Structures are given as structure tokens and as C-alpha cells.
Amino acid sequence: MKDETFKNAKYELNPSGTILINNQEVAHTKQCCHCQRHFVSIKGSGKIRGFCMKCGKITCGKLACDTCMPFEKKLENYEKGKTKTL
Ligand SMILES: [Zn+2]
Ligand SMILES: [Zn+2]
After folding, report:
1. Which protein residues have their CB within 5 A of the ion that is ligand 2?
2. 21 forms bridges with which residues in the sheet?
3. Residue 35 · residue 68 · CB < 8 Å
4. Which residues pair with 38 in a beta bridge?
5. In whole angstroms, how far apart are CA 60 and each of 39, 44, 65?
6. Backbone φ and ψ of 53, nearest 5°
7. 47 CB contacts (<8 Å, ≥6 apart)?
8. 33, 38, 63, 77: which one has the fewest Cβ atoms less than 10 Å from its Cβ?
């Protein structure tokens, strides 16, 4: 059975990473500049991805990532005890 999960995965010009299945490149991933999560853009999925004007990079579109909070800053807050979660 053919895996069609990434059939409509968008080809990224500057991918942050790739997803390999059986050593075959099946999708490109982009990384959210705020939470560092990798995600795959699927054509026609209607999923809205965000874009941070401050970082000049794309975000995963999560509500929490709409606000500019670079990962380094988050880490800093975490170390200082301001944030409990990363
Ligand atoms: Zn994110
Ligand atoms: Zn940002």
C-alpha cells in the first residue's frame, strides 16, 4: 500500500528539513521560528501558517506562535523561571 500522507506536500524552496520514508524524500518541512517545531505544508489543506515580520520567518500558525517569541528568548525566560513550559 502506498503512503499518500505526503502526496500533496508542498515542495519548499528552502526547506528546514526533509521527511524520508524508505530513504525516499517524501516531504519537505519548515521550521517555526518561535517554537522550533517542524511541520509539513500540505497543498490545499487550508491550514494557515503564520509569518513573523520581526523574525522574517514563518511560524507554525499556532495561536501561541502568533506573538513574536523567539526560541532563545523562551529559553531565557525558562532559565529565569518566568516560564514553566517551553
Ligand atoms: Zn510554532
Ligand atoms: Zn518572531
Report:
1. 52, 54-55, 68
2. 24
3. no
4. 31
5. 7, 16, 7
6. -65, -35
7. 41, 61
8. 63
How far, in Å, from the CA of 38 to the mean position of ligand 2? 15
So where are the chain's domains? Answer: 17-79
* Tens digit of each residue's pLDDT (9 = 90 or more) over 35-74: 999 999 888 887 778 899 999 998 988 888 888 987 888 8
Q: How far is the CA of 1 from the centre of ligand 1 (A)?
A: 32
**Nearest ligand to residue 72 Cα:** 2
pTM for this one? 0.71
> How far does residue 34's CA lie from ligand 2's centre (Å)?
6
d(CA 78, ligand 2 centre) in Å: 17
**Cα 34 to averaged position of ligand 1 atoms, centre (Å):** 5
